[in-house]
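Nematoblast specific protein: structure, please.
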Amino acid sequence: MTDIQISFGWNAFQTCSTQTCTYSKIKESGVSKWKDSNIIISLFFYVTVAGVYDISLVSDEIQREAELQVNIPSISYSQIAKFNTDSLNLSLGSIQIDNPGYIKVNFQGTNSLINRKTGQYPKLKTLILSNVENISAISFVQDSFSSHFGRRGPSVHLKYNLESKSKIKYFFNEVTVPKKWDAIGTYAMAIGFSSGYFGMQVNSESERKILFSVWSPQKTDDPSTILAENEVKLLAKGKKTVIKSFGNEGSGGQSYLVYPWVTGVAYQFKLVGYPTKDGYSVFTAYFKDPTKFEDYILIASWKRPKTQTYLERVYSFLENFDPEKGNISRKAYFNNQRAFTNKGKNVKIQSATFTYDETATKQQRYDYDGGVDDINGYYLRNCGFFDKTNVKTGDIFKKTQ
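Here you go.
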């Protein structure tokens, strides 16, 4: 028998029971500075073996006597946890889990404060599962893993398998985000390639972007250190396209169009790439809204030094770039892919290979999925703590039509 310690800083998220809440960012040290009784703190872990587990809550800071409503919706567990300055480790009793899958434990401050003095709700540091026979029966984001990437959730990818890889100059793709699957932090990347990526993002409640970025050949996360000979050069841009540099994931040139794309529309992406005689390669991105434009509009054209390629390793991905939103599922369809060589010859897309990132590879989270729908195309889904699917990295999806 052993105890399993699940850290809130790696595995907890906030939602609001009303229209507005006052949030404080969840840190690695746990949930603190918490005063709003409308906030619900949800901790997630995955159970592979049914059984009875004892649970307790660990805090390292209690400013006032207070009560928390604790519930686990999937097993109809509900209990009031009463804290005082002596209750840094509080037993929450036993829970019976009958089916494997994700367990969500909710914590919400009650309005019935035992002591009405000012202060915050108890800091939530760790949830402990006791009397666990097999430690592999419980999965969650470990403290040794990145809390940033663990809370973001797994990124998922589709690598397109073409009948010929020689001199692909043009690639087309369509992306549709279904209704209610467009959470903040979503990046539905339509066309990735060896030197960059192109797709659409949800940046906030009021802002969305069509984003096209090209990496510098110099490997650095700090764009200010890129030598002049390694700079990605802008050749052209759309009228409303914003141009800037980027870093922290490699560095290079970034271009984006602030654009109010909506769910349920199959937006069209076109990427052109070819080498030039002076040692560069040119990559140009075009975007089409089928409800607004008769033709594609230019996002930007970039010239990458020390590069002599057409479009290589073409793929798509779906990611969440906001660690505070990793508890919300997102989904995207990728359809009607087309590829052409520099001679204009059509190259067939035979299939797509599914992969995922380290968050899934290291079994920190299981909320990932992918597949193919002959009507809507290939799809990717991630985040939201939905139960584990059978899909695994390396699976190949192929349309029947």
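Notes: The chain has two domains: 2-142, 149-397.
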